[in-house]
Amino acid sequence: MHELSVAEELLARASEAAADHGADTVETLTVELGVATHVNPTQLRFCLETVAETRGDSDLTVEIESVDPQAACDCGWAGEPPSFGATAGRVPTARCPDCGSSVEFTSGKECRLASITVPDAPECNEGVHT
Amino acid sequence: MTLFTHPRRSHRFPIHRLRRVLRRKNPLPVARAHRFGHGDDADGTDMSDDVLAQYREQARALHERLVHDHDVSVVEFLGATGSGKTTLIEHLIERAPSDEAIGVVVGDVAGDDDARRFRTHDVDVANVTTGKECHLDPGLLGDALTDLDLNALDRLYVENVGNMVCPADFPLGAQARVLVVSTTEGDDVVRKHPLLFEACDAAVINKIDIADAVGADIDRMASDIADVAPEMDVFRTNGRDGDGLDAVASFLTDVRAAGHDHAHH
After folding, report:
1. Range(s) of the domain holding residue A91
2. Is the pLDDT of residue B42 over 70?
3. Which of B52, B160, B197, B264 is best to mutate for the A interface (most A CBs within 10 A)?
């Protein structure tokens, strides 16, 4: 349900970066989304596309790259934590498979704007052979 | 095409010079690209590219401000709509020492029903209506704090929006996150929401007085919590009469006494 506000934040950041390059639209937006979050990738894509459309960016291509969970425990264990069974999506536990204590995720908790592409600016096309 | 590297990385990655040289001779036939730095870069300057990490950072800053700068003990209550969060906080207010100054921030999608209830007690209340949002985030909580005199407060209760999914991704900087479930939600409620239990510090099983009437097995709920979060403190309460609330109050006193070094909130 919070995908809408997350999408708005990501697009605001993307627009800012596009503006830094003199572009007012974003062509492709790539998000790295951790598996150990409650952000639903399908809903996030829908929200990104919908919000972009309201801003006049109707051709935005959204790429969502799933980031596997990695965790480390005080006992020395590190690796990919086991998942809860029988869930529609993969839901990793925050338990150490060795000693049962809480683990800290080292990856899998992110929702990160990884890259964007913007249309070629006219002056940049000069002399460029494609 | 022109390839842009992230400006904040360029000084540490001499590869951008190589790219510049290559580009001059052999421009790539793709649209201009902007890559953002990794949030796990040593200097952490690219935190803002990760939206969830940004919220976690704001929560840490709130914790610093409330708990360390203003010496306010902050306790967050979460759980479904109707689980009994408001009633439990009211009981805790009644049990507080008379010289304890209490503030309450109440989050709801709409209305001020809970805020009006709290205003009948001798506490400072800030109401947050989230509109479209399913949870409080550190920014909303920070805004609400402007209604309260932090220097005067000893304890702040934060009642999150009734929701058992989204708040897992949005810590608020509390010293303890207390998750309230009730027997009326079904005794399988714990197994349906493992991530939120993992994100909290204590659980309350409420409405134990009507467990039989709604066919809920309280022991099963408690053992499910032990499976999902073995280190979690679990309390059984009857919010209507206040049974079991003394134990919750004493747990929260211990949380405060344990100091300000709480690991991950």
Report:
1. 3-120
2. no
3. B52
